[in-house]
Amino acid sequence: MNLNSVDGGFIAGLEAQLPEGVLRKVEARYLEEPRGRYRGQAGVMALPQTTEQVSVLLRAANVARVPVVPYGGGTGLVGGQVMVEGPLPLVISMERMRAVRAVYPQENVLVAEAGAILADVQAAAQEAGRLFPLSLASEGSAQVGGNLSTNAGGVNVLRYGNARELCLGLEAVLPSGDIWQGLSRLRKDNTGYDLRGLLIGAEGTLGIITAAALKLSPIPAARGTAIFVVKSPQAALAILSLARDRLGEGISAFELIHRQGLEFLSETLPQLRQPFAAPPEWSVLVELGLAGGIDPEAELADLFEVALEAGHALDGVIAQSEAQRQELWTVREQIPEANRLVGSVVSHDISVPLSAIPEFIVRAGERIAQLGDFRINCFGHLGDGNLHYNVFPAVGRRREDYESQRGEVQQVVHDLVHEMSGSISAEHGVGRMKADDIERYGDPVRLAAMRAIKQALDPNGILNPGAVLKA
Amino acid sequence: MNLNSVDGGFIAGLEAQLPEGVLRKVEARYLEEPRGRYRGQAGVMALPQTTEQVSVLLRAANVARVPVVPYGGGTGLVGGQVMVEGPLPLVISMERMRAVRAVYPQENVLVAEAGAILADVQAAAQEAGRLFPLSLASEGSAQVGGNLSTNAGGVNVLRYGNARELCLGLEAVLPSGDIWQGLSRLRKDNTGYDLRGLLIGAEGTLGIITAAALKLSPIPAARGTAIFVVKSPQAALAILSLARDRLGEGISAFELIHRQGLEFLSETLPQLRQPFAAPPEWSVLVELGLAGGIDPEAELADLFEVALEAGHALDGVIAQSEAQRQELWTVREQIPEANRLVGSVVSHDISVPLSAIPEFIVRAGERIAQLGDFRINCFGHLGDGNLHYNVFPAVGRRREDYESQRGEVQQVVHDLVHEMSGSISAEHGVGRMKADDIERYGDPVRLAAMRAIKQALDPNGILNPGAVLKA
């Protein structure tokens, strides 16, 4: 691919077409990413205010064959937002396109620009008496454009689906600079190929999403939250099955918690109140969101009773107030922060078929034990088959001690995931971190189709080079 | 596109690679379609039994540049299953690949081959205590491969989504003959572009789906069905809003029925029992599927009470038994049959943003009245914004009398849909019938992207030429 660095001529050409303030010097924070694994580089930044400006930017970059890195909230965990080598790119940050353009409560639709912060979109939906169910740890800074580009998951996928399922239509600029006016508010539209679904999850390599029509849901009339101590991951799945039989789609979240995560919380965030005096080996956080007329606390109590009878549950706490609900959620939500403070050797964002989870946990533990002395915090979105399988130094050792083992540990985990028909990137995406991995583990026919699609839509390869597909 | 007719050499080459019985003489029924608008042609048929045989067929066709028409249950309404002109194609019917390969009740997943009849898939799910919610009039003969290729909709989209949302993974053969092993049972897998979503709804123009991992749901503990007489379509939407506020996702179907449909039923199927002595101008069929502990009949009674108070509902029938539920559904489900018996001048499968529906109905009626004397049966999936807007001869006239007006009526309806940001094919797809229409109404940037994708994945253009994109 023959790409060129941003240069003075390129910048001057853009300046002539764009209002003052769109082009900026590159600030260091746009070249960092949360895990500190990648350090980006850039020739110039743009902060467009309109879709037309994005179009001008891409058209110029395409003609000059200048690489372009689309930048959202910067919260991605796989290096998709920073280009670490090659010609100096144009970084386009969407932060000034953050309007909620319209809310249609009767249609359960909200139209937001790509730069809108996820929490602001949630709030706008709430204000209209509706729920935008996408919810994840970084929602206070992540932007919906980035959420869509990475097909974000989070804690409510079990009930509401991934970002792709929450989007009805897109407005996007293709690498040519052409604007696709696809902001459909329709639930049903079978007039051709699913370009929407293709751009979602493409991590900015096929086009830049500038706005989206998002699907809202009714706000459940009543919510209830509990943490059950379970005998094993297998028992947790049995409880999920029981809960589904009783409550249908009423289960909004079903999150696995391991003792290790609670111990990390005690170590690093001792002020945080925990539900059990002694951290249980395995527990699950269950969230219900139910229609009017049903009492979620009573349902949780019934569920617990049945699970206890069956020997699946050993103990439990059911929130009796909104404050207690928040307290239980805080435990779950602070686990990633505790992980960060402890410092992992390597983290994995994997999924396997739901029924294979217990076996995966056993086998992965065995294989890692063969490599050395580690602590494992395995937690996450059990209801989706999605685990964050994070590996930490043994007590008294530092992550630096394991630097040479990182790759080995990761390969052991990913090999096992692959053997068990799982995914090595369940929700975080490929970015630059896993571009090699999908070549290793991905279906070759699909990869060839992906390359053909990339070539077809971005023949000069200007968009986010090196992300998803190796350059 | 330089494509070649099937010839003796092509057939002999395939016979050498395939077991006896795969290649067949073409039977007339594979060249027909339900509306009798298109008459297909073919050089030879294949009834493969394995994915590998499909691969052999496509590889040979790709080398010989022979067009291929994938054939499912033959129930498509837009001519996607018949090639009416050009070189004689190979028709591949999937009917012998009809196994339900596996059911994973705990995972809510079922893996079926493309030729499995939709009703058989529903039954297999039911047997495992689960629901496969895709449901449509032709489910007794439609095949899941065709349902996926057309991204089928039906009566439960409101709650469960279109076919695309009901599919986790695919096995498919690409035009090259390469087999994509993508039968993922994962809820979350962000390892690259959404090839699954792209093949779904591509109407067999990008690949042939051979098997699918389908998403199952819990069976609602209790169901309830009612028909409410409503003051207007606007009142129907108000009731939908009320119902959503009270029952969340518990509403499985919300179907609009017009007086004209009930009158057609009286005319053509007089033995069928109707819920009201005099057919009401507008009514809605409401179906609830609720978790245990709630009584759907009581919920429907409460909803009716509130809707009556507010002046939205005028009368109502709530089914008091399973037999009555079936009776109400039969009314809704027999409307297409009554339509067929009366014989439409032209049918439309359109969607507009939900809140625009009342205005659409008024304006479309006005515009058609200007063209002449017609009867209009406007009914369908109101909850999805999807109406079947079918136009019939006035009393005492025949459809043949209007032959010259068909195009005009259709254009008036489609123009209005387009003005109102709707879709001219909400659920039936493009096929050959609407390939011109999407060129007229479609976003040109999206169309160009679709053409680029088609060229990238099927460079010789062998797959279902003329469907979706004009040849």
UniProtKB/TrEMBL annotation, chains A, B:
GO biological process: respiratory electron transport chain
A GO term, aspect molecular function: catalytic activity
Keyword check for Iron-sulfur: no
Residue intervals of the FAD-binding PCMH-type domain: 38-219
Cofactor requirement: FAD
Keywords associated with the record: FAD, Flavoprotein
InterPro entries (UniProt xref): FAD-bd_oxidored_4_C (IPR004113), FAD-bd_PCMH (IPR016166), FAD-bd_PCMH-like_sf (IPR036318), FAD-bd_PCMH_sub1 (IPR016167), FAD-bd_PCMH_sub2 (IPR016169), FAD-linked_Oxase-like_C (IPR016164), FAD-oxidored/transferase_4 (IPR051264), Oxid_FAD_bind_N (IPR006094)
Family to which the UniProt record says this protein belongs: Belongs to the FAD-binding oxidoreductase/transferase type 4 family.
Stated name of the protein: FAD-binding oxidoreductase
Source organism per UniProt: Parasedimentitalea marina
